[in-house]
TrEMBL record:
CDD domains cross-referenced by the UniProt entry: HDc (cd00077), YhaM_OBF_like (cd04492)
Species whose genome carries this gene: Candidatus Brocadia fulgida
Keywords in alphabetical order: Hydrolase
Pfam families hit by this protein: HD (PF01966), tRNA_anti-codon (PF01336)
Alphabetical GO biological process terms: rRNA 3'-end processing
Name of the protein: Phosphohydrolase
Amino acid sequence: MPKKYISSLKTGEVVEDVFLVLKKEVKETREKKPYLNLQLADKTGSLEARKWDAAPHLCNSFHKDAFIKIKGVVETFNNTLQIRVNEISPVAEECVQMSDFVPSTEKDVSAMMSELRQIIKTIRDPYLSKLLDAFFTEESFCKVFSTAPAATQYHHAYLGGLLEHILSVARLAVSFSNLYPMIKRDLLLTGVILHDIGKTRELSYERSFHYTDEGQLTGHLISGVLMIYEKAQKIDGFPSDLLNVLFHLILSHHGEYEWGSPVKPGTPEAIALHHLDNLDAKVYAATKAITEHKDTSSSWTDYVKMFERRLYKK
């Protein structure tokens, strides 16, 4: 029987399929009876699920990030779909097709890497060109870079999402630099291409997406600067002032202290990078929130934390 994906489920439908457990909570009803509060996922999205009257042996039979086969019914609660689970059985990882559960970019990864490399070839500054080549001629880096997600949930949170995001911002930067010739094009493009490389160390993405120990301890801004420093030290004569300005682009690209930047953008290129990066992330997140909102009777999404408001869908 072909897998039934979450994105296709409808109210009243009987579900008997395997899902990845993103969240598992054991709670109690008002009558002190235990039940399971779950968030189940596949590559098309996630859905809340409840298993009432959950015996202790069932609660202990699987854990978060495990695969389970459920049998249940899709219901609507507060205008949102959820599953009332009747049966649960754990499933071994070797019995599942991982590509059914981990979301991936729908775009051609090889074509995106090729386009990004073509943009890199337009960099004329010899030091910035050598720096980018040091990263993008390294097979192990390119494999991780082209596989990693750009985030755990808000934007481009799927395999290949980091590459897709970087390429989108690079395209914006090419157009932007043509409109503003006073911008140092090579510096802006280098900052764009390298601004999120620390996410290759920050995020873990074997099943669901999590932060690594390095990601939680230092974050991708610091990791990115360290990665750039390691490469730059191997390039003879790399100017220290150019390296510091590039560090500034990486460290300031979130734009505000409360958004995680230790410094605010202080050069035209840093200001441009922050806004181009933010534009791509925010437009993607808004589009995602609208397309994934399941209440077709409403013209508005639910409250979206990133925007601190509901979004108009029509």
